[in-house]
Design brief:
With about 375 residues, the protein is an alpha/beta fold. It is about 45% helix and about 20% strand. It has 2 domains: about 200 residues, Rossmann fold (3-Layer(aba) Sandwich), CATH 3.40.50; about 170 residues, 3-Layer(aba) Sandwich (Rossmann fold). It is built from 14 helices and 14 strands.
C-alpha cells in the first residue's frame, strides 16, 4: 500500500472539517464535482481534504493533479483491486489522523465500504449520489446499486443531483428529511480558439458533433454512433472519453462505415476548453443525474442535443436545446440535423442555455446549499 499525503498548506481558521472520499476515474463528472466542491470551500477558508483510492500508482492522474493545482490537500491510497479490508484499514488510519467532523463519500464503493469507518471515529456521514443506472445495466451494477441504496438509509445526509434520483431514494426507504436535492453547478469556462480546439482534437474538416463522457453502457455512445451514421457524409464526429466499451464502439464504428468521419480521442484533460470545436454537443445517455458536460456545453454557448433522461430536462428544454427520447438513434439524428440546418435557431437556443446556467447554476449558490447540508447534519448530532 502506498500513502502519499500532499504537502499543500492547511486552511486557516474556522468551519467544520470535511474529508471527501472517492475512488476516482481519470476523468468524469463525479471528479469535476469533487474538485469544484473542495476548492470552492477552500476559497471560503473551510477545511476540506480529499482521499483518493487508486488501484495503481499514477503520478499524472488528472483528478489528483487538478486538486493539487487548486490547493486542495489529497491523500492518495494505492491499493490492489478488491483489497477491501486493506482499504478500510488505510482509510481508517487517515480518518483517525485527520478527525473530520464529516466524511463525505462519492461513488458506490466509498458508500459501501466506509460508512462504518466514519462511525468508528465519531464523524457524521454524507454522500452525494451522482447518478443511478437503469434497469438494463449489467447484473453486477444492479447489485451494487441495490446494496448502495440500502446503505444510504443509514447516512446522516444524502445529496441527490436531480429530482429523479431523490424520488428513487425515497421509494427505496431513505428518509425524506435526509435527502437534499442539489443539482450540480459549473464555474467559469475558458474556451480555446475554435481552430486551435479542432486541431488539438484532430478533427475532420466540415461540420462537427461531439460526444464527451465515459464509454460505458449508461452513457449511450453506441446510440450516438448509430445517429452519426444517419447524418450526411459531410458531418464528422469526435468521441472524447475512455471506458470499458471503447473497443466495442470502435468495432461498431467500422461496421457502420463511419471511417474517417469519426475519431476516438480518448481521455482529454480539461475537455471543456475544447467544446468550441463542435457545432453541437450530443448527450445520448440512457440514464443521468445532472451531467457536468451538459452544464459545460451550456456555459460555453455550444448548442446541445440530449436525451430526456434523469435530471437533463431540469436543465434543458426546447427553448434552450433539443431533447429526444433515449434509445432512439433516428430521433437523435433528426434533432442533430435540425440543429445543423438552422444556425440562427441554434445560436438562439445556445444563448438561452448560457443565460440559464449563469442565472441558476453558479458555484457560489451551489456551495451555499452544500453548506446548509453540512450544517443540518452537524445540528442533527446535537438533537
Amino acid at each position: 500500500m502506498t500513502v502519499n499525503v500532499a504537502a499543500a498548506p492547511e486552511a486557516e481558521a474556522g468551519g467544520r472539517s470535511v474529508l471527501h472520499l472517492t475512488a476516482p476515474a481519470r476523468l468524469g463528472g463525479l471528479e469535476r464535482v469533487v474538485t469544484e466542491l473542495t476548492s470552492g470551500f477552500r476559497r471560503r477558508g473551510e477545511v476540506h481534504r480529499v482521499v483518493a483510492v487508486l488501484e495503481r500508482e499514477d503520478r499524472e492522474h488528472p483528478f489528483v493533479l487538478g486538486l493539487r493545482q487548486r490547493g486542495v490537500p489529497v491523500d492518495v491510497l494505492v491499493l490492489p483491486a478488491h483489497a477491501y479490508a486493506r482499504e478500510r484499514r488505510a482509510v481508517l488510519r487517515v480518518c483517525a489522523q485527520e478527525r473530520p467532523a464529516i466524511l463525505h463519500t462519492h461513488g458506490y464503493r466509498s458508500d459501501l465500504l466506509h460508512y462504518g469507518t466514519a462511525r468508528r471515529i465519531g464523524a457524521r456521514v454524507v454522500s452525494t449520489l451522482h447518478g443511478l443506472g437503469g434497469a438494463d445495466q449489467p447484473l453486477r451494477g444492479r447489485l451494487y446499486e441495490y446494496l448502495q441504496v440500502r446503505r444510504l438509509r443509514r447516512f446522516d445526509g444524502v445529496v441527490a443531483v436531480s429530482q429523479v434520483i431523490a424520488g428513487r431514494l425515497g421509494r427505496s426507504g431513505v428518509r425524506p428529511d435526509r435527502v437534499h436535492v442539489i443539482p450540480n453547478a459549473i464555474g467559469a469556462i475558458t474556451l480555446r480558439d475554435r481552430t486551435d480546439a479542432r486541431q488539438c482534437l484532430g478533427a475532420p474538416a466540415g461540420r462537427l458533433v461531439g460526444f464527451v463522457g465515459r464509454l460505458s453502457h449508461e452513457k449511450g455512445a453506441d446510440v450516438f454512433l448509430e445517429a452519426v451514421a444517419r447524418l450526411p457524409d459531410g458531418v464528422g464526429a469526435i468521441v472524447i472519453g475512455e471506458g470499458p466499451e471503447r473497443r466495442a464502439l470502435e468495432v461498431q464504428a467500422d461496421t457502420l462505415g463511419l471511417g474517417e468521419r469519426i475519431r476516438f480521442a480518448g481521455g482529454v484533460p480539461e475537455a471543456g476548453a475544447l467544446l468550441s470545436a463542435f457545432d453541437a454537443v450530443v448527450l445520448s445517455s440512457r440514464t443521468e443525474g445532472t451531467p457536468m458536460i451538459l452544464l459545460e456545453a451550456m456555459a460555453a454557448g455550444v448548442p446541445v442535443v440530449a436525451t430526456r433522461v434523469g435530471g437533463v430536462p431540469d436543465l434543458l428544454d426546447e427553448r434552450s436545446g433539443w431533447l429526444v427520447s433515449a434509445e432512439e438513434p433516428e430521433g437523435l439524428a433528426s434533432a442533430i440535423g435540425a440543429l445543423l440546418a438552422d444556425a440562427p435557431e441554434a445560436r438562439r437556443r445556445a444563448a438561452a442555455a448560457r443565460d440559464r446556467v449563469d442565472r441558476d447554476y453558479g458555484v457560489e449558490r451551489w456551495l451555499d446549499r452544500y453548506e446548509a447540508v453540512y450544517a443540518d447534519t452537524t445540528r442533527a448530532v446535537l438533537r
